[in-house]
Amino acid sequence: MRMWVSWSLLVVVLAVATAALGWWTVPVAAAVWGAMNAGDRRAWLTAAAAAAVAWALLLVVTAVGGPVFALAGKLGGALGVPGIVVILLTLLLPAALAGSAAGLVATVWTAVRGSRGAQNSEG
């Protein structure tokens, strides 16, 4: 239950930070998530899923006030793909950013903590 709550909080943080400050907040927030969950081998996956859900929520909110799906259809037509592909690619970007940042930081954080532990046990 605690993991769902923290994951839901990450979704909210990613959505609000993206809306307020921009896309670059996704890897920053995910890096913090990775550091906080360094022992979890799936930290990258949960961060990626949270980012995709956060941006999907932002797309839904935007779609209420504007022609998101019409624009996706036009962009898809220009690219020669269905509009849904444009939307899926839009969700893939934050997932890739968040997953990469969380995975990298979690791995480095674990390695640094492990090397510190080894140094402390030797000294």
Molecular structure report:
By secondary structure, the chain is mostly helical. The chain is 87% helix and 0% strand. It contains five helices and no strands. It has helices at residues 2-21, 25-36, 43-65, 68-79, 83-122.
Label the structural class: mainly alpha
Rg from Cα = 18 Å
Total helical elements: 5
Averaged pLDDT: 91
Give the gist of this structure.
With 123 residues, the protein is mainly alpha-helical.
Secondary structure: elements and pairs:
Layout: H1 2-21, H2 25-36, H3 43-65, H4 68-79, H5 83-122
For this entry, give a set of tags.
mainly alpha; 87% helix; elongated; 123 residues; 5 helices
